[in-house]
Specification:
By secondary structure, the protein is mainly beta. The chain contains 2 helices and 10 strands. Strand 6 and strand 7 form a beta hairpin.
């Protein structure tokens, strides 16, 4: 818990330090829905259901130029899904478990903007720190928190656009994230650890609002039509 607080305070210091450099910074809030799935070792007697969840958080963007910007923030994420086991004799479903993952994530991305300042694509990494991971059966729950890594890294790519609202603007993103690190930090034996070698990939739709800081504003949409 102490490390997570230091990490969060460090991010806040980084954001406020950059916001004082010039008027090319913007801060905002965002929320989104995601569909995620486990990749890696599949259960030998069943399958993994689709994970659904949501995210909410704050974001910060620093515009290096009209064409490039740095984007980061801090998000609270929640993902749900299911494991389904089957009877190996008659191939009928024998048991199932609903699971839930919660955690804090920090994206670190570089954005490339179109000439008119309306559309952009990004690439970077996302660092996630799971704080809650439980599987829920009908009569009891299983805590997997001690079996997962403290920090997970994912490669992230997105495309988005902004809609001006006076000095502020709405933004809409479609984000693809591919896990780079194994979620499980223990023995990769499904019978022993109850959790196999696994990575998470997800597709997320996100929207939010940003408020540029300072007198100058490189987040303004411009017309590119030429005579």
């Amino acid at each position: 818990m102490h490390k997570r607080r230091v990490f969060t305070l460090g991010l806040c210091f980084f954001i406020f330090s950059f916001s004082n450099i010039s008027g090319q910074s913007a801060v905002g809030i965002n929320l989104g829905l995601n569909n995620a799935k486990f990749s890696g070792d599949q259960p030998t007697r069943g399958w993994i259901g689709l994970n659904r969840g949501f995210t909410i958080g704050g974001n910060y963007s620093y515009r290096l130029s009209q064409a490039f910007s740095l984007q980061t923030g801090i998000n609270w994420d929640r993902i749900t899904g299911s494991y389904h086991w089957v009877d190996t004799t008659d191939l009928e479903e024998k048991d199932s478990m609903e699971y839930e993952i919660r955690g804090v994530s920090i994206p670190l991305n570089v954005a490339v903007w179109t000439e008119n300042g309306r559309f952009y694509v990004t690439a970077g990494i996302r660092i996630t720190s799971p704080s809650y991971f439980k599987g829920h059966h009908t009569d009891y729950s299983v805590d997997f928190k001690d079996e997962v890594r403290k920090y997970l890294f994912s490669a992230e790519f997105s495309a988005g656009f902004i809609v001006p609202l006076g000095t502020s603007h709405l933004f809409f993103d479609l984000i693809y994230s591919q896990g780079l690190t194994d979620l499980n930090r223990r023995i990769h034996d499904f019978e022993v650890s109850k959790f196999p070698r696994t990575k998470i990939f997800s597709v997320r739709f996100q929207m939010g609002i940003r408020f540029p800081l300072g007198a100058e504003d490189r987040f303004t949409v411009t017309k590119t039509n030429k005579q």
